[in-house]
Amino acid sequence: MRERTATPLKVVWLLVILGSTLRISAQSEIGSWQRFWTPADSFHQARFWVAAGTGTSLYAVTMVGLNEVWYKTYPRSKFHLHNDWGEWRMMDKLGHAFTTYTESRLLSQGSRWTGMNENASRWLGTGVALGLQSSIEWLDGHSSQWGFSWPDMAFNGLGAITYLAQDRFWHEQRVLLKISNWLPSYPSQPMEQLAGNSLDQRAVDLFGSGWGERYLKDYNAQTVWLSVSPHAFLKKSSWPAWLNIAFGYSGENMYGGYANSWILPTGQPVQLDELRYPRYSQYVLSMDIDFTRIPTRSPFLKAVFEALNAFKVPFPGLEYNSLGQFKLGWLY
Known about the structure:
Elements: H1 7-27, H2 33-37, H3 45-69, H4 91-113, H5 118-141, H6 150-169, E1 175-181, H7 199-207, H8 211-217, E2 222-228, H9 230-233, E3 243-252, E4 261-263, E5 269-271, E6 280-289, H10 299-308, E7 317-321, E8 326-329
Antiparallel strand pairs: 1-2, 2-3, 3-6, 4-5, 6-7, 7-8
Helix pairs in contact: 1-3, 1-4, 4-5, 4-6, 5-6
């Protein structure tokens, strides 16, 4: 069974669809620049069909492209299930939650741009987001290298519900799901137990060599965050509305999905020393910025801030890890 390192890369294709749909739809409107980005006061049929048509076309092209450049290179199989619970110390699962949350948020905002009412927009956004993720799982289910994962679907649902519940009851997002990435430097010296290869080469084999590919696929580099707005819960406080408290989770020293053991192309088994390369989890307390709470009258800037809110802003942070260590970092 091939280790699942491709999910973040496939997810980015879908995020590109969302961003492209909003941009193309907005630019198709006739009028001033500000009107391009201003949500319609009532249902705008032209905007709706431009957005729907553009999104459907991009989705179809992307799914065909994924099939041709990714799934087609691996053996097909009958539809089957695959339980990948606990793989990559749950970073893959949190990535699913983050992605579906972000898709739900952006798609709902895009729906409101067409003039759809608040209730219809939130249900359409979360429904389409779940549909996008489900179609990827369907492709996984027909690949002998992977399989349809109910744990993945559960975390897709968690991400959608995180958006939907807040939008329904608070009419705002007080708890944001965000992501950050800090590419690590892997040891490059050859190791005898790796047949003269290095851990840097293992990272290349798992996560790719290019910066973009590593950014998307390297679970050791990623942190998923809950970014909470204290001001949203304490409206009368003097706490700045845009300043959030962030709680992050990440994994470290992961050179395989479940363990730091693998088989070299020569057939030689590899098992890293657990004392020297322990797999562990990191829990981080930091600060963050909620861009959507920065005052602006510009519809364009509001759209930019919505997109930026997918990423955690670097701040100092306090880490506690599963090895029992506390660490203070200048930037997380």
